[in-house]
Amino acid sequence: MSGTSSSQGRSIAVFCGARAGVHARHLQVAGQFGEALARRGAGLVYGACGIGVMGAVAGAVTAAGGSVTGVIPHHLYEREKPDLAGGDIYVVRSMHERKALMYRLSSGFAVLPGGLGTLDELMEVATWNQLRLHEKPVVLINQGGFFDPLIAMLDHVVAEGFLTHEERAAIRATADLGDALDWLGLPVAPGTTAGSVTPGTPTAPSSTPDTPDTPAAPVVTVAGGN
After folding, report:
1. What CA–CA distance (Å, rounded) separates 114 from 103?
2. CA-CA distances (angstroms) from residue 190 to 5, 51, 68, 173?
3. CA 54, CA 185: separation in Å to the nearest integer?
4. What is the pTM of this model?
5. pLDDT tens by residue, 60-74
6. Best CA proximity match to 64, nearest among 93, 90, 103, 38
7. What is the 3-state secondary structure (H, E, C) of 8-26?
8. What is the pLDDT of residues 156-197, one digit of tens each?
9. Coil, helix or strand for 162?
10. Nearest 5°: phi and psi at 109?
11. Number of helices (H) and strands (E), helices first, in the chain?
12. Quick one: which of 221, 222, 216 has its CA closest to 105?
């Protein structure tokens, strides 16, 4: 691996949809974010879907020379076509194991447009921060105002007394990809230019989860390499 960035060896989990959505910008932003992530020297951890927004971000990371690690339950393998996106793919037994492994492999979480599964993952990692099960940054990529209603809802929950301002602040939102990557702890490497890529290193699954309450997820590598 080239470069000297402190981002090397880090991986960011990206939560997003297996669908493309109705606006072309969703796929465009996913591609831009994937390329920018690779240029910061970080790897991608995602749900191993080769289509929709997930497929766009994974394809962009791969094209930019970054590392891609997908995690998928066996019952979704055919439906979500992970082989279309490439990278290292781990097949697990359940959705719970998928999320647990993604959380362990990642140093932070970025959220792009998606549906119920995306919202589920966002709320779970935010809850883990609230409960001090981990302390990892969470950033909404809010281009086109996609997350504005969700942001308003979170502020409403604070106003109603069910969430503290400190807990609310753990979920950040920005339309600027550079700011998002900064908040995720991925500084620009000294001497790195906009056109250079310093790909990250795939992180092997840890034998010890972040918390004693999270069981180690058995994995099977079914495809590898970029």
Report:
1. 18
2. 7, 34, 24, 26
3. 22
4. 0.81
5. 999 999 999 999 998
6. 38
7. CCCEEEEECCCCCCCCCHH
8. 999 999 999 999 999 999 999 999 999 999 988 665 544 333
9. coil
10. -135, 125
11. 8, 8
12. 216
47 near 102, Cβ under 8 Å?
yes
Q: In degrees to the nearest 10, what's the CA dihedral of 115, 212, 154, 52?
A: -20
Alpha helices, DSSP H, located in 9-94:
25-39, 52-63, 77-80
Distance CA 183, CA 57 (A): 19
Instruction: Match 């969470």 to its residue by tokens.
Output: 138
Token pair 């891609």 in the structure block, residue:
68
CA distance linking residue 128 with residue 32, whole number of Å: 28
Question: Can you read off the two tokens belonging to residue 180?
Answer: 């998002």
With a CB cutoff of 8 Å and minimum separation 6, the contacts of 6 are: 187, 189
